[in-house]
Amino acid sequence: MAYRDIVGSFWYLHDQAFLKFSRVIQLPHYGVHRYDPDISEAFDLFSKLWKMQKEYRWLLEQNGLERWEIGQIAFRIGQLYVGQYLKNGDTKNLFEAYLSYKAIMDHGYLLDTSINLEIHFLVHFFLLCLMLGRHEMVHLIAAEIKDLYNGFLEEEPMEWKQSFKEIERFHEVDRSFMNMRPLRYSFAFDPHPNSIPNLASGGKERAPILHVAIILGYHPNEVKFGEITLDSLRMLQCLEWEPCGEFAETTRGEGIQGGNSSPNLLQDIRDMSLPPNPQKLIFYRPSITLFLMVITTAWNELPSDKVLLIYLSAGGEGELSLVPSNSRPSSESCGRIMHSFSNIEISYTATSTNKSPVKSSSQRDCSKLQSEPCLWLGPHESEGSNFLYPSDLIPFTRRSLFLVIDSKSSYAFKAIHGAEKGKTTAMLLSPTSQPPTIADSAGHDCCQNGSQFTMFLTAPVQAFCILTGHSMADISKDTFNTAEELLSLSLIEWGTVLLASPELDEVWIDVLRDPLLWRLLLRFIFCRAVLALFKPTNHEEEFLPTCLPQLPESVLPQSEVSQSSLKPIASLFEATDHFDFK
Questions:
Q1: Which of 92, 398, 429, 490 has the fewest CB atoms in 10 Å of its CB?
Q2: Which of these, 374, 296, 373, lies nearest to 342 by C-alpha position?
Q3: Taking the model in full, what pTM does it have?
């Protein structure tokens, strides 16, 4: 092939690859298999493009190919890998993206180009490092972005202002997790699945059953970056496996080296030593319509023997508040549909003592509002289209659901229990009031450091330290590791007691089959025990999380196993006096 033909073929392939990328990057992440041919074609085009620039680099550079254009190809490849991760949950896709991004930074492919492009790349790299838990790189990239932003300020001060503020807030929170264990299920800290108590008592073998997790963030003013909030990021990582063994070692040395080796496009990149990760669908403040459409799509693709997890983090405050009703019956039209919700109603809370609430169209059609609790998810002065009703989720109970609701109105979802259409729904519900901490009797600021309930489920040792007034910066890594070992032993003990109980509901037996859900449920038991025995809560129910179906009495906070499990951890942090032990 003549040199001129080579150059022409390269740029034609370049245009085709970038055109396909612009289409693929806009595809929704739900509906996993619908767009597989387009994604495969995009990977194929970029694989050929990368191979061609590697083989004819000298010729292409002589004919106008610049280093930033090579970096842009690697950047697009990394973005494709991130997209694949969002579709299949495989963390090695994140590692492949990391290696591409790291090579771009190490070799300065995007230096001496527009500041816009460089900041755009670094913002993506920052988010990727947050998802991987690469704390040192997070701080390095944050510093580089700050330097670029300061130089960019005089030209266009508003263009990156919001992103930079979000990065600063996330960076500040991330500092306290520098020396902590990974949030993913790690064999270095969590029990190996083979060491988890045998589930033969339930008549079922241990097997991953969590298929997909829908993660939704609605908390106002929460620390976030792009479309990922702090709580959503923690939950995302909590529902994954930490790469280990041979895979963890080999990925450190692979990747793009100065543009002379090819990224592993279209290869089997799974870590075969680990079970597959569930797919995660992450959304920040989606509309109710989109929310229900995503659930419907995931539900339709859910195998009959798998579980769909929905994590919902919301403030629960606004113009609507939930109050119990002693006698008010539901309307005739709603009574036949929502009889189980007839003892709860919605009341409007006036924002001014001088004005009564103005009735909207949703109030005039208020039979549903009067008979059913709901969670307010929309903007102020919005109507029913921004309310999430427990009954909205009931059609999906024909298959296995696992709900984690972190909201001050979480108790509204208790109405689902007993109204399921097929399978019993497993629910973990947050306290309705933020429990006080030793450091701040007014309560921990969930907006600045994330929700306390979510932190107990995803980083329980850190949550315990914050609750008892410890600064994580003052606690050594060895102390944290010891606490993690104690907690791991406690979780195994709680799991053993649960399985030995004849009162354990079948839905929890199914949950305990999956190591990721096993850990989530047992951390909930730890959270409930800590908050129930914590003296400042004074045993008040508003500060305690709940779960449905109810767990056996043998794992209640007052039980011997719960107190004996909590005492060593409290003693390690010299916090025994803060708890009401027998």
A1: 398
A2: 373
A3: 0.84
Residue of 219, 145, 130, 141 whose CA lies nearest to 177: 130
Enumerate residue ranges in the chain where pLDDT < 50. 200-203, 246-270, 318-370, 381, 441-447
Tell me the helix, strand and coil percentages in the chain, rounded to 5.
50, 10, 40
Q: Which residue has the tokens 């009067």?
A: 370
Closest CA to 209 of 521, 417, 549, 460: 521
Nearest to 20 by CA among 1, 3, 35, 2: 35
Q: How far apart are CA 71 and CA 259, in angstroms?
A: 9
Euclidean distance between CA atoms 302 and 300, whole angstroms: 6
Long-range contacts of 227-232, Cβ-Cβ distance < 8 Å, separation of 24 or more: 227/282, 227/283, 227/284, 228/127, 228/130, 228/131, 228/282, 228/284, 229/284, 229/313, 230/170, 230/173, 230/449, 230/450, 231/313, 231/406, 231/450, 231/451, 231/454, 232/282, 232/284, 232/311, 232/313
Which residues, listed in sequence order, are joined to residue 320 by a DSSP beta bridge? Answer: 348
Q: Are 214 and 157 in contact (CB under 8 A)?
A: no
Task: Read off the tokens for 58.
Answer: 């000298």
Distance of alpha carbon 473 from alpha carbon 178, whole angstroms:
9
Angle at 484 between CA 442 and CA 565, to 5 degrees: 75
Distance CA 292, CA 216 (A): 12
**pLDDT of 426-457, one tens digit each?**
999 999 988 887 665 434 444 467 889 999 99
- Give me the phi and psi of 401, to 5 degrees please: -115, 145
Written as six digits, the tokens of 19 are: 């055109």
Strand partners, 322: 346
In this prediction, residue 235 carries a pLDDT of 95
pLDDT the model gives residue 251: 43
Going from N- to C-terminal start, the domains of the chain cover 3-181+236-277, 182-208+430-582, 212-221+278-410
Neighbours of 290 (CB within 10 A): 14
CB 126 within 8 A of CB 225: yes
Burial readout 298-315 (b: 16 or more C-beta within 10 A, e: otherwise):
bbebbeeebbbbbbbbbb
The DSSP letter of residue 409 is: T
User: What ranges make up the beta strands (E) of 306-399?
Assistant: 307-313, 320-324, 344-348, 375-376, 387-388
> pLDDT by residue (tens digit) across 45-58?
999 999 999 999 98
The strand pair at 307-313 and 228-229 is best described as: unpaired
| Cα 304 from chain centroid (whole Å) | 24
Contact predicate 210/239, CB 8 Å: yes
Give the C-alpha separation, 184 to 132, whole Å: 9
Half-sphere exposure of 257 (CA within 13 A, CB side): 5
